[in-house]
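PT: before anyone asks, these are the final sequences, not the draft ones from last week. 831 residues across everything. Please model them as a single complex and drop the result in this thread when it's through.
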Amino acid sequence: MLDRTKAPAMQQVENIHFLSPELFTLDNGVVVYALKGGEQEIIKTDFVMDAGSLLGNNRLVAATASDLLFTGANGKTSEEIANEFDFYGAFNSKSCHFTDNLITNFCLTKHSDKVYELLSNYINNATFTDYELEVYKFVKIQNLTVSKQKTSYIARKAFTQALFEGHPYGYFAEVEDYKYLNVNEIDNFYNSNKKLKYIILSGAYTSETISLLNKYFGNYEVRGSWVYNDSFSSAAEKIIHIPKADAMQCTVRLGFKTINRLHPDYPKLGILVTLLGGFFGSRLMKNIREDKGYTYGIHASVVSYPDCGVFGIQTDVRKEVYKDTVNEIFKEINRLKNEPISDEEIDILSNYSLGSFLRSIDGAFAVSEKYKTLLDFGQDYNYYHNYIRLLKNIDRDELMQIARTYFVDEDIYQVVAGV
Amino acid sequence: MLHYTRFELENGLIVLHHFDATTPIAAVNILYNVGAKDEDPHRTGFAHLFEHLMFGGSANISNYDSELQKASGENNAFTTNDITNYYITLPVNNIETALWLESDRMKALDFNEKSLDVQRNVVIEEFKQRYLNQPYGDAWLKIRPLAYKVHPYLWATIGKEIKHIEDATLEDVKAFFYNFYRPNNAVMTIAGNISLETTKELANKWFGDIEKAPVKRNNIQKEPKQTAERRETTKGNVPYDALYMAWHCSNRSDDKYYTTELITNILSGSSSSRLYNRLVKEQEMFSELYCYQTDSTDEGLIIVQGNLAEGKTLEEGEKAVLDELAVLLENGCSEAELEKVKNKKETVFTYSETEILTKAMNLSFYEYLGDANLINTEMDKFRKVSAEDIKTVSREIFTAENRSVLYYLKEN
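LR: through. Structure below.
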């Protein structure tokens, strides 16, 4: 007779295999980090360029240049260019980060010759026109106007701006900013900064794929080096309320500026934040959602910026319970500082996080994302080996110490939008 | 070609096995053949509320999530108008934990007031967060009953109104469970580095003793052919007027589904597509404009929706959409344009087969549609669509009498 009351034997995640990159150097010295894997004949190529948003004098310029890439080149229109990529079934996405601009392409391996040719041509010879910029402004301004009605947007903006007053990290574009954009500054910015830092290739590539990258990107201009240093200050007032008369729920955001991935305590802080609000079984989810039913979801996270980190908690709750929600959040933070974590919780936290990590490096495409983060911070796989070691030996006293060091009640910003 | 093996337990549970040795992760996907369309019209939102309750503990396991987390697993679920789908990924060594958890909740849930109480509140907050506290969030609550008059697609999975969720009782929950959550109403896929032999053994061990039972279903009536255009106007606190147009289209099993899908791709979804280039960029009529189909099992809808540019009227916007559709009806599409949307599909399809969970989900879904092997013939069906088909099916769909139009006006 089957005993359903007893869990089947479980094994802890043991050997985590990291896909090692093959390194190739193109004729111009650009390094290609290549991660091979997968049975499907599809590849992902990440082109990492210099043109991040910390570089621009007008912070919106970098993002706009990124968004407007592929809207013109060699006298072709954006529709013509899009048609050419689409014909080969290729997908492009562009995202502008603080220290770089990322162009990601997915295509079937069999089309890589054509697709790389298109990419090289249109990245190298990109042009920007008034017509495309005007359309872009019109779309962006309307979308921004819609966003401004969402309590989630209002809270995120107020929170980030309070943490980074007057600094690019705290920048949110306003309607007026779009109006002042002009084509010349975008063109100038793009052409001075379209330098290739490195390439990450992942999926079912062959030696031919590497030759093609060299053929099309081997004579491409290579990055210079730039250092950004600008100081930021935070708002004095830490409690911010933004009413919105017709809101049915309010968004609550709490958090503070903290360490980033370069600090030795960061992986431990990350583990602590997972316990607090990083997964379905976290303390905040159990308390605010599963016990009290105040919300559909509540999450905590810590993210790394180039020279600092941000810890944040966010949730949408019904208006009547926002005060209680804030109190409960503080209560949970204080439990981290004062109560040792139970054996069962450590068991769950450790095993869940190990599984989650295993999933996050499952397959070449997934690894490519992780690998880019390592490169961004000048780290290597040792960072993750250390993280795994910590996960397998979670030390409750150490985590309590981390909580006491990094969670200081007086430093916590509180934003409530919608009441 | 995706290889799989299908077998059936004596209690009617269909199991699909897919072997993949390239990943340490296994996926277990269970699709129950029950969705919002199976609900009583006076108790809507129940299939989705029920999905939440499936995590509230079962007869022998008080906390589903923490047991799975201990085994390094992760899970989630979703409800549509047609199905409720539960999925787990975890290290393949621990796959038995997934089967233990899933079989125990298929055998019998732990029905308790506390879980029902909390999840009612959670779902009500979800209702607000997704539908009521977002600009235009309630548009779908209005389009469905405009386009459907008989078929239960006339309500959304979240339900017609919050009150239906508030009124749910434990008795309703029990009845729903013992009717729909039976092995003979489910398809389970197990994918990963696990042999067929082990899969059979474990499936029988954990699911073999669950009793089958007849499933009573409402008699779902086919939506009668629409014979005249329907129009409605609504108002909300939104910054711009918005247009929603819906036309009835084929069901998921009809060959026309593939043609319809490519029609939506010609019109929308890329910066090379027609609606974006003509109506957003050239005419600056809309700030965003999308066309897609609802992908439902029974006869679905093809939707065009967009936010009007400041200063343009809904009448102008509607006319611009109809003019653009008229070009399609008149001239169809070129061979190159058709080839383009097929090639994009091929990339999407190839990508979907790089992930163990997506493969498991798709196998269960195609089996539910009638044949798991559809996963291997799907792309051929897209390839077979001709330019002539695009014109013919467009002409069938985009008629005035087949159309429902919702004007969403900004207040003031």
